[in-house]
């Protein structure tokens, strides 16, 4: 197992909450992490028909087996357990009593919100971060390899190629999650929708246009996109709320959370083709945005990442708030620093005035240095904490 940064957060939450929940996409390592942090707790998967039938038929008896708590995997498959868990943990008053894991965010969050509010500490676990890969010597040698392989643990724990793993992952996802969450009559149409989302990663989200390209309505496109978000395949990056005296674009941006999956959906099958591929910039941007999200999730924090764009086209790729001020991040896939890279972010600083920190430029080359009032960080150096 590749050690996960989120383990520290999970241990911290288990000292203050009777229940901790680990959510994230399928195959991101949720169960492996829970077992590693809580090796002495019994493990039960609610995907097991016998266990699920027992939990549905007799939830009190099911939970009564675990006098020292347990890891309950895919717990959203048995919603009746949430109410019973509330009574058990309230009566026992033991911190870190139960560990819940699940891949369907909507169902798990609904159960937690309705029955377990105030009793659950939540960790969102995405695929491996660049820091986790680098710390174990697994970070790919080249940026193109990083963009092709992505970061799902199976591709680094086993002898697998992306071209063998991703098609099976997508097929399993469509068969299991989509059929559970929504009634899709034509799975091939939904798969086309997923591919069209990959082609729009890093762009402003236009649901009407997206739906039209897939032969569905904007309402259906919104519903299907919510499923992708609930499954942690994509995320929406909101525009920053302050306008600094400018008319703002208010439409969110769409991003895939694993760049390897995005590359496979775009039909990219080898690293060499990425160097000249039209989507290279979008792939790199998805990779960097994903790394910033993972960094915050692994610390137990909400993403709280934004972008900024005004009606004249001035734009900042990433913005987030710190105690010291706003941090702006510009993302450039080029391997060599260009003197005009800081221009857009400098214009934004003029609008924001004294509220900002020194801008950060993440680029497709290597090295860490300062240039033209900006901190410059290569893709490999992004793996440093």
Instruction: Give the termini separation.
Output: 20 Å
Low-confidence stretches: none
Helical content class: 40-55%
Biggest beta sheet attributes: 8 strands, mixed
Strand order of the largest sheet: 7-6-8-9-10-11-13-12
Element pattern in H and E: HEHEHHEHEHEHHHHHHHEEHHEEEHEEE
Please give a handful of descriptors for the protein shown.
385 residues, Rossmann fold, 3 domains, globular, Arc Repressor Mutant, subunit A, alpha/beta, 16 helices
Can you describe this structure?
This protein is an alpha/beta fold. It has three domains: 6-124, Rossmann fold (3-Layer(aba) Sandwich), CATH 3.40.50; 130-293, Arc Repressor Mutant, subunit A (Orthogonal Bundle); 315-383, no CATH class. It is built from 16 helices and 13 strands. The chain has helices at 6-14, 30-37, 49-57, 59-64, 80-92, 105-115, 130-135, 143-149, 154-157, 162-181, 187-199, 207-214, 218-230, 259-265, 280-298, 343-352; strands at 19-23, 43-45, 70-73, 98-102, 120-124, 234-239, 253-256, 306-309, 315-322, 325-332, 360-363, 368-371, 374-378. The strands form two sheets. Strands 7-6-8-9-10-11-13-12 form an eight-stranded mixed beta sheet, sandwiched between helices. Strands 2-3-4-1-5 form a five-stranded parallel beta sheet, with helices on both faces. A hairpin with a 5-residue loop joins strand 8 and strand 9. The chain is globular. It starts with 5 loop residues before the first helix and ends in a 7-residue tail after the last strand. The model has no long low-confidence stretch (mean pLDDT 90).
